[in-house]
Amino acid sequence: MERAFQAGSAFHEVMESAREDLATAASEVLFGLGEELAGEALVDSPVGHTVLSEYLPEDLGGFEAVSRDGAREEFFDFAVSLASADYENASGVTVEIGIADLGAIPAILSEDFLERWDIHVNEESARGWELTTEFRGYRAFEEFRRSRETDGRGRAEILWIIEERFAVFLEGRDVTIDEMHDLIDRFDVEGLARMRGREGR
After folding, report:
1. pTM (predicted TM-score)
2. Going edge to edge, which strands form the sheet with 128-135?
3. Domain span at residue 31?
């Protein structure tokens, strides 16, 4: 359980920190998992953050991008690329969507790695839930905390792992879980998946 908590905390730190400092978020996850990194990486170098930004369109299901950020950094001899965009709809609901390319880090998002760390969550209370789930064929970790019991709105975070290489994270406040799932349905996951073996420059 301790190993699962460490891994879960590291992934959670990516979502929590990405808005303020993408590079710091990457360093935190690598520091937390550094001793477990072994084996072969999918690629020698991640794609650039500008490539990742192409999967964060200006409009996504009624949410418009209002700001963007990106970084490519190296930590512990590993390179990481991250891109994020803040989205807002006509009702003022905001959601951040980010993509991290962790393909140059050995085995960090592989099924064997996740199983070995025993990263499975299924907890529910009156305030919300945390669970391990699947969207469009890929594993995801979802957390929702209700702020208004009457309309089902609250704070939602989703970490979605694509092709054992890309970590897509979504964070919304005063949002419904249906709105978050609709964004996932509209995301170009097929395009991102096709980059599984693509080398960066």
Report:
1. 0.78
2. 59-60, 63-75, 78-88, 94-101, 166-175, 153-162, 138-148, 128-135, 122-125
3. 2-193
